[in-house]
Amino acid sequence: MTATESDPVASGPVEGQSVDRSERHVIGFLAFLSIILAFGVDSVLPAFDEISEQFELKPGSGEVSLVITWYLLGMAAGQMLWGLLSDRFGRRSILVVGLGLYGLGALGAGLAPNMTGLLTMRFVWGLGAASPSATRLAISRDLYSGDQMARVISFVMAVFLLGPAIAPAVGEGILLIGDWRLVCFSAAPLAALAVFWTVRFGETLPRSSRRPIDLGATGRGVRAVLGTRVTIGYTLASMFTFGAFFVYLGSSAPIIDEIYGLDEYFALIFGGSALFLAAAVWTSERFIRRYGADGVSMTALLGLLVVSAVFTVWAVAAEGVPSFWVWYAATGLLGAFTTIFTPTASAIAMEPMQRIAGAASGMFGVITIGGGSILANLIDRQIDNTVTPMAVGNIVYTAVAIGFVLWARGGSRAVVDPEA
Q1: Phi and psi angles of residue 211, each rounded to the nearest 5 degrees, phi first
Q2: Claim: this prediction has a pTM higher than 0.90
Q3: Fold of 20-408
């Protein structure tokens, strides 16, 4: 079934639209955009030691983790901008410009003469990455709705969440033939390939559906998102689950190295996590077909809560350092349930936003990535020779997310018209 057959929103000729854009084609394209995002975040993790040595960073200071933080800040900062521009000029042109900036940021990071320059270019790199991050949800909403949109997004978001399991292994492989700069340079060809595919994929937003950019229209769009209970509720819930996931992303390297002394197996350990996440992807798609996005999202949150509670009890009983295999199983299961929850929550949040999908997708990214990064930083700073803060952070953030979902379920899912 093609996108144009599956949803009336996508019916009719759209400038640049492929003649045969099947669901599989859409998933493949959007998943590749997620690979671009994940590579920018995670491929540099194995290069932390080299970066620390080159720029003479203090051991144990955590300064090198800013390489991840500034990329995520760039992603958060660009979400709303790219989302609004994509509603005005279409998805394709905004993707091309953003991917170009992504490539320039990667090249600039590889040429950085000092830590300040590296962090600056990582921000630019993330700013470019914000374009595919914001538009992939908008494209999904352009073409699909309901549980079908949830299934598509489940595959796409899962690829992004699989990044921490796979991209570090790729980065480790690149380090066998070069240094950390080559890891940065290698992102540029990926961006070029993404530009080529974007042009071939075509436009999904008809000219008749594009919206002018002005302060009044922007304000009405923001108010529509903030005032739609189901959208803002699921967005805030996702912010807290992202916060818990980013704790794993930012702190697992020092935990593996300093607490468990397994730094030489870092890439292998991360790669093994892919088994948990792959199982989650397989389960999520089938469960959405059978039980719908609502049932799957709440089940995933309850799974997160149970695992977090057990993890917390075990960590406290072990005085903050449970066995490596307990930590590994707990974080793997938490990542799996996050992989199930995130795409279903995204789809539900976007359901009423058909007329302002770009702006809504941008706000979703700003809140979830920006807010999630801040929430993660609060926990990351507490991790010092103990994994207890990670466990406690997961249970607290999951409980808050459940509260927001229960509140959001009382809202309407009718398509919102910000001009009404």
Answers
A1: -120, 140
A2: no
A3: Growth Hormone; Chain: A; (1.20.1250)
